[in-house]
Amino acid sequence: MAKIAIIEDEQQILEMYKLKFEAEGFEVVTAKNGKEGLEIIKQSKPDLIMLDLMMPEMMGDAMLAELRKTDWGKNIKVIVMTNISEYEAPESLKDLGVENYIVKARYTPKQVTELVKNVLKIKSD
Fold first, then answer.
1. What is the pLDDT of residues 12-35, one digit of tens each?
2. Does residue 117 contact residue 123 with C-beta atoms inside 8 Å?
3. What is the pLDDT of residues 38-53, one digit of tens each?
4. What's the pTM?
5. How many CB atoms sit inside 10 A of residue 122's CB?
6. Measured distance CA(79)–CA(125) in Å, rounded
7. DSSP string, the chain
8. Of 15-24, 60-69, 116-125, which one has max mean pLDDT?
9. What mean pLDDT do residues 39-68 have?
10. N- to C-terminal Cα separation, the chain
């Protein structure tokens, strides 16, 4: 099954999605900020990144900008999962190539899992 990196500073959300994706058969790696996320991603080379924007140490858009400068990170699939509306999102996101932009409060974990499977072209049960 595919490997997902979850980069999220809210511990409860991080744990909830980690458990949900593992229950669906995904391998999951996690980080609590963008700086840690870059290191985890370099080491684990996930198939998809679930990325929060508002985080300590390094914001999600800054992390993604750094990631896109690398050969191994320029084409990785990214879903931004945040509580910032698309209208308030950093302008730079438009040029950083994200698959989807979702506002956490508007999606259930089941909907997020289905979205991830769709992006990775994994058939649902």
1. 999 999 999 999 999 999 999 999
2. yes
3. 999 999 999 999 999 8
4. 0.90
5. 16
6. 22
7. --EEEEE-S-HHHHHHHHHHHHHTT-EEEEESSHHHHHHHHHHH--SEEEE-SS-SSS-HHHHHHHHHTSTTTSS-EEEEEESS-TTTS-GGGGGS--SEEEEGGG--HHHHHHHHHHHTT----
8. 15-24
9. 91
10. 14
CB–CB of 58/40 below 8 Å?
no
Domain residues of the chain, as ranges?
Answer: 3-119
Tokens standing for residue 82: 């945040």
Burial status of residue 109 (CB atoms within 10 A of its CB: 0-12, 13-18, 19 or more): middle
Decide which of 3.40.50.10320, 2.130.10.10, 3.40.50.720, 3.40.50.2300 is the CATH code for 3-119: 3.40.50.2300
Distance CA 78, CA 124 (A): 20
| Separation CA 23–CA 106 (nearest Å) | 22
